[in-house]
């Protein structure tokens, strides 16, 4: 049995660990709140943008042939997978879920004879893939902590460039969709080609069909510019969702860690008391035995 | 005229949230082919915006200026919606921050041009060019005021 001093030392160490996990939990909770607010504040922009696109689509014949981002490629030979992970760990299965899904998809595509370009956002994912000797087309670090629209724009621009240049025939985003602090859903979303239902289904009440709009410059060129913006927005939302999920996952992981630390402290305290009691009993026995021997 | 509406409802929205919302007398936006003034009872219109300065005349005849990046504007039923990649009120622009952003973007573009990118960093040309343009625009808008 461990001595009292050993147990005491362990208790102190677990207590210190608990302090750290508790602090991390609180930081994650604060960041989660901010991240959720940021998701919320993108909503007006996203809604207006959908209205713009849907409104425009009414005025012009949307011929996918003329919009490279809408155009389906006849044959899918190469797919770009964009996996959104975090720069930091200690957030439960957050990173490994994405890595696992990405690996599954890669094997699926490969078995169909489709090549895969892997784009990884976040140091953790990049590190894992590199360690496992996967070919990585591009990595982005330092943006997941506080993603800006600029970051989303550069990612979207890269994706659009690959797609219109026919280097890839589809761009898929893999990210953690934020449901709650306890739950993050691993989501797969096709970003390019822009899914046609985006243009077709969303019809706002205010888009009266009889209104004659002036377009400055032409409707087509406006739509041509709106589509990339739509892609940017999709990527931006995914980045924000992923950040919120990361903080949520970390909060939950750290709460669990704090709880187990508490349990461990209880157990160790019990063991320490037992050891103390045992040593007292031992001492009494020794004293009594000594007294007996003298008489 | 019987129409008694003499103001526009303006909403300026960026991906980070609403920037401005309110009733105004006139809106001037930087469209791709020059500035575009919008007065009440303007015909329905959708226009593409370029990076630049947007001016808003309030109902008290004051001018409010904003720095906006690429985006779109929609006018319909006296409602003006401006969607911009980035938008800030001139009065809220943080000059030291904009200057720092400008320097940083310049520095990073220089690194890229001279091939002196540090090992552990990745620099995206597109991102830095956009950042540079935006910082320049912000400063230009502030300095005009």
In a few lines, what is going on in this structure?
The complex is a heterodimer of chains A (295) and B (145). Chain A is of the alpha/beta class and 295 residues long.
Verbal overview:
- The complex is a heterodimer of chains A (295) and B (145).
- Chain A is α/β, with parallel strands linked by helices.
- Chain A has two domains: 4-26 and 253-294, Orthogonal Bundle (Helix Hairpins); 36-252, ATP synthase, F1 complex, gamma subunit (Pyruvate Kinase, Chain: A, domain 1).
- Helix content of chain A is 61%, strand content 13%.
- In chain A, helix 2 (94-111) packs across helix 3 (123-131).
- The radius of gyration of chain A is 29 Å and the shape is elongated.
- The model of chain A has no long low-confidence stretch (mean pLDDT 87).
- Chain B has 145 residues and is α+β, with helices and mostly antiparallel strands.
- Chain B has two helices and nine strands; from the N terminus they run E-E-E-E-E-E-E-E-E-H-H.
- In chain B, strands 1, 2, 3, 4, 5, 6, 7, 8 and 9 form a nine-stranded mixed sheet that branches.
- In chain B, strand 5 and strand 6 (63-68) form a beta hairpin.
- In chain B, helix 1 runs antiparallel to helix 2.
- The relative contact order of chain B is 0.17.
- The chains are: A alpha/beta (295), B alpha+beta (145).
- Chain A binds chain B through residues 38, 41-42, 44-45, 48-49, 51-52, 55-56, 139-141, 149-154, 157-158, 206, 211-217, 219, 221-222, 225-226, 229, 232-233, 236, and chain B through 11, 13-18, 31-33, 36, 43-48, 70-72, 74, 76-77, 81, 83, 85-86, 122, 124, 126-127, 130-131, 134.
